[in-house]
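Student: Send me a single protein entry containing the residue sequence and its fold in token form, directly below this note:

Tutor:
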Amino acid sequence: MYWGLRKLQTLNGVKLFVFDLHRLQSQRRQELGNMETSQRDELSSFLTVLPPVDFCCVYGSTLHPNNQDKSKMVDYILGVSDPLQWHSENLKMNSDHYASWMVHLGGARLITEVADKVGVGVHFNPFVSWNDRKLKYGVVRMNDLVQDILDWNRFYLSGRLQKPVHLLVDNLDIEDVNSVNKRAAVSAALLLLPSKFTEEDLYAKICSLSYMGDLRMLFAEDTNKVNKIVKGQFDLFQSMYKPFLEDCQTKNLLRFSSAETNLVQDSSLSASRSLVSSLPASVRSQMGKLLGEKKILSETGRVSGEVCIGSREVAARCMEKVMKRRVMVSSARQAVSGFLAAGAINATMYLSQKMRKAWNSRS
């Protein structure tokens, strides 16, 4: 079962349509127009050899302007209603995409169980050859994807969707649901930033949220990864977050200045409370356990908890602690799941490539 957008409006008390839907769709069409039709067709052609999906996006270096390097791996996220059924069908069509031990020992059931019970609900097939390119695709249950987008319960794919992606399939309007995720990302980033900063600082902070506590950053990721992502896709970040910054400006949380540090935010306690209130419920709940919370009775009679904030700095440190813990657990679980899913040879190849980039960035 999927949640329709009308139902999503009331899920966990989150208001989805804070922004003008037509404006978001118009901007999205503009972003998609920036991708050459030939490139989009090439990326979409891979889906013809897979079972049908409800959601598909492409991310990573493929999105960098003027990227003509076909040696780099193309990354896909595929959303499906039933991973067990989908992997069963895909094994008949593309058994060579999977680690041989998983195919022979348990098939689709083992693949799904490793993703759900060891990892964070995503199964990745790396080093898949298609049209002289290397691809990696991750398969996730649609309900799990929606929950992570709305509540950051795993903060895995929700973190990915806070960065630029190109949608190839979106049958269930995940693009619109993701507006909640992006709004929360802006609030979290503002809470961690000083009163004056640049637009690039803001996008770098948003981008860094999903790497806080990531164990791979210690030894297997480029230390300059965040800056490279933001500088390489700055225009995409701008178009992606423009309506959310305008909303902050309308609420007097943020204003643009002509100075070199072209953004100034309200750092008052009331503004900080407003930012915290825009974070997902699971994050607020964890913060409430650490800082304390008071019960608020709404006009509709609904009781909700409000995090007790003594100062902006304390609130920022608390949120950072909660997010680091969440990312650390998810990244560790997914690393183990990914090693099992890829098989020893592919996993070693993938890790060695990552470590080579990491060491080059440190030298």
About this structure: The beta strands are 55-59, 74-80, 122-130, 133-141, 166-170, 196-197, 254-256, 263-265, 293-297, 303-307. Residues 44-362 form one domain. The chain has one domain: 44-362.
